[in-house]
Amino acid sequence: MRSPRPRLPRAGLGAAGVLVAALVAVVPSVSADAGPPSARQGRGPTTHDVVANLWEWNWPSVARECTDVLGPSGYGAVQVAPPQDSLKRTDPGSEGILHPWWEVYQAVDYQLTSRMGDERQFRDMVSTCRAAGMKVYVDAVINHTTGQGSTSYGGKSYEHFSYPAVPYGYDDFHPRGAECDSASGGIEDFNNQRQVFRCELLGLADLKTEQASTQRTIAAYLNKLLGYGVSGFRVDAAKHVGQDDLDAIYARLHDTREGNRPFWALEVFGGGPGTLSPQAFVRSGTVLGLDGVKQLRDAFKSYPAEHVGSIATLETFGEGSGLTPSRRTLSFVQNHDTERNGDALSYKDGATNRLATQYLLASGYGRPQVYAAFTFGSDTNQSPPSTPDGMITDTDCGSDQWSCTDRDPGVNALVRWHDAVGRAPQADWWDDGGNVISFRRGPGWVAFNNNAEPRRVTLDTGLPRGHYCDEVTRANGCTPVDVDSHGRTTVTVPAKGAVAVLR
């Protein structure tokens, strides 16, 4: 299982340590809106369902990206960082970072006064993105409050078990004792269901989510966001909330403006047995594809003298390789946790990361998400670009401070390809046993080359005879792909590149 992370010390106890990472946290495509299987599902489009995860972009930047890039490129939704009021550090701590990225995952109250902007800016962003044809999904921190500090970005004061602005008091948490039976009050055994559900994760004050009053408070916050036009949630640390509490909270949520049940994507890391496994949480919603990122990493990335990847292994990627059901999975190549903890590829892998993202979009497994965020150095606690008081500045995709994968022309060519093939299953798989593969999905055919040099191959496409245009190069004049009467073509697949055509 995943190695337990160090316990986060509480402020005021003389400890200098801080959170290292905040919440560590081929089949038809998933419906655009998915909550618990027992809930009424939204009809949702079968295409235009790709999610752009603009992690810790401020609200004006998200709004511009929806209008200028995501809508025109065929994305269907945007996921944004936690908008609630959160911890604002006043001491840089032992690592010397005053405003690390994980501040936003330590909730103080549910007012929309975050590092990304104020309530007006949030509402304007949601309205702008909806006008561009984009649904908005919010990263929801509902398992816990804070583990340190005493002041918030909204200027609120608090203590570890006292948050007057909510209001939450001592009786709204799981302190050490009858409800949490670990010696420290934190999770000491990640295979122990009681500890996972009722003890503190990394020293973060654990809410009594089984309590009706807490459920009402959380639901009121999420319903406020739904009222502003939000269409769903990525539920942070959902594994530590537990299925029964998640279901009870979800049952209190209103329908979206589209008339559907809200999208409900649960952060559940693998490694736990039985009821603690990602597979056990699909009864309560879509789950994040956190085990899938490891398989993609190992298929695409070569580790000198240790491991040489082979994308031929991806023939059964998805349910066939032991992952959660496609219709209940939000799939991605990396997110903010996995790019920092080594589980996944990252922007630092350059062309390999881009190719893996293109493959995921084409694969048909899960509902695909494209990740775009700020760059970081050797200290993975690093703050996003911000003002001295911690407010995140506008995203500048032309600088080396941001990695805007959602703007990559090759990635967006596969977004459009994904939209066009819809729910069609994979067929006509071919591979060379190493790092060149191809397959068809309905009206589309693709080939991927994970080698450092181009490869010229002749293979079956499953397409009718004709002259086709490579969608990846269409913007630069369109490389022709000719298919003969037997459905065969001879193409040169670029190094670390792809060829994609549509009938």
Q: Please state roughly what percent of the residues sit in beta strands, choosing from under 5%, 5-15%, 15-25%, 25-35%, 35-45% or over 45%.
A: 15-25%
Helix vs. strand class: alpha/beta
The H/E string reads EHEHEHHEHEHEHEHHEEHEEEEEEEE
The helix fraction, in percent, is 10-25%
What is the overall silhouette? globular
**Cα-based radius of gyration, to the nearest Å:** 23 Å
Question: If helices are DSSP runs of H or I spanning 4 or more residues, what is the number of helices?
Answer: 10
Distance between the termini: 45 Å
What topology, given as strand order, has the largest sheet? 1-2-3-4-5-6-7-8
Name the CATH superfamily classification of the largest domain. Answer: Glycosidases
Architecture (CATH level 2) name of the largest domain = Alpha-Beta Barrel
The biggest beta sheet, please?
Answer: 8 strands, parallel, barrel
* Average pLDDT taken over every residue: 91
What's the count of strands? 17
CATH C-level label of the largest domain: Alpha Beta
CATH fold type of the largest domain: TIM Barrel
Task: Note down, in words, how this protein is organized.
There is one protein chain. The chain is globular. The protein has ten helices and 17 strands. The chain folds into two domains: 371 residues, TIM Barrel, CATH 3.20.20; 77 residues, Golgi alpha-mannosidase II (Immunoglobulin-like). Helix 9 packs parallel to helix 10. It is α/β, with parallel strands linked by helices and 503 residues long. Strand 2, helix 2 and strand 3 form a beta-alpha-beta unit. Helices cover 20% and strands 17% of the residues. It starts with 50 loop residues before the first strand and ends with a strand.
